[in-house]
Amino acid sequence: MRLLPSTACLTAAAFVAACAAPSIQPGEPADAVLRAFGSPTARYALPEGGERIEYASGPFGRTTWMVDVDGAGRVKAARQVLGEAQFAEFAQRVAGMPREAVLRELGTPGERSRVRFPAGETWSWRYPTNDCLLFQVSMGDDGKAVSAGYNIDLRCDARSDARD
Question: What's 160's DSSP letter?
Answer without folding.
Answer: G
